[in-house]
């Protein structure tokens, strides 16, 4: 039992688009290109446009770890793998002697899991893609995997295809970015090497896997691996190999993978970089990246003992989203549902707050590019751009009602508006203070949003 507890140390996730993005140009020969199982070849693949345009996604950590719902989603590892005293005490105080991790499986009921409600919530949050744990470190698959030895959501617990149901619900709300689950495993040791062949066959022949569903659904797909152990050299080669069929067997150019494929790959190889949890660079990176973070400060999976002080504030979430996009990244915000399939109200509230903000300011976020300057020095103004438009998102309303911007260079055709407000704003220039924008003279309650406002500049150099 102990070897099984520590054998699989992977986080692989499903990506499902929930809203259509602008039509995207395709590389004319990319779909005909062949890739070899080495990083120079794999890294030469262009990043699919949909992913860069999406900007905001929702992360969902859900599995058998949602049953104890205590400590973190690595409950099994901390209890059996490391034998940490707090986890040992928790089990001794709440469960009978001899209770195994497998005994949690039947309690993972998903009784109140309504994927249509989830999909509606994620869409209302403004998410353009959803990342669901199809298989976490515990080895339990959230779909009827034929090689999971009765450790899956069809044979145990919910007796449902959790992944497939959510995929169906999300595809109803999307045109161009529907997607499918995939499975790719990496192991801490060679003792479970035989699993690899089984999962490779699953990928190629068994649904819902990339090869089979890609023909039926024509999906977009994002592979999100989480393998951070130092693997043996043979497994480094295997990791490169496992990226390769994802590209080779896709019928579309929309497949994208992250960078967590084992030793020396994080922040070095992959379509986009995660680098580490809650990674936030201080300047504009040269490679596409993503910040993944959680509404619960201390865990990714649901915790029954979470308190309000451990929940990230709405303003902090929106600030991180703005900063991430300004620096060219995507923002992936995590929630953890309960074992019953409920998304607790505080998580819903935070997601809907983001959606409300994006309903006004989304123009300055979706499908934007970093501007020549990302941040005003010593101020809280972040820039993005789209075509000939520049967006300045300011986090604090100036006391005198005049926003000062040092970097935009105006012309005779410059016009400035605030997103959510119809009329043009008056402006002037000052040799020292730069561009001075007269903001709307409105009471705070009449402003389109209560935090982080956007001015749109057209006709600037």
TrEMBL record:
Subunit structure and binding partners: Homotetramer.
Localization: Lysosome
GO molecular function, one term: alpha-L-fucosidase activity
Domain spans labelled Alpha-L-fucosidase C-terminal: 379-458
Site (May be important for catalysis): 292
SUPFAM superfamilies linked: (Trans)glycosidases
Span of domain Glycoside hydrolase family 29 N-terminal: 27-363
PANTHER family, sorted: ALPHA-L-FUCOSIDASE, TISSUE ALPHA-L-FUCOSIDASE
Its job: Alpha-L-fucosidase is responsible for hydrolyzing the alpha-1,6-linked fucose joined to the reducing-end N-acetylglucosamine of the carbohydrate moieties of glycoproteins.
Major enzyme class: hydrolase
EC identifiers of the protein: 3.2.1.51
UniProt protein name: Alpha-L-fucosidase
Main localization, broad class: other
GO biological process, one term: lipid metabolic process
Gene Ontology cellular-component terms listed: azurophil granule lumen
Keywords: Glycoprotein, Glycosidase, Hydrolase, Lipid metabolism, Lysosome, Signal
Family recorded in the similarity comment: Belongs to the glycosyl hydrolase 29 family.
Signal peptide boundaries: 1-19
Record field: catalytic activity: a neolactoside IV(2)-alpha-Fuc-nLc4Cer(d18:0) + H2O = a neolactoside nLc4Cer(d18:0) + L-fucose; an alpha-L-fucoside + H2O = L-fucose + an alcohol; a neolactoside IV(2)-alpha-Fuc-nLc4Cer(d18:1(4E)) + H2O = a neolactoside nLc4Cer(d18:1(4E)) + L-fucose
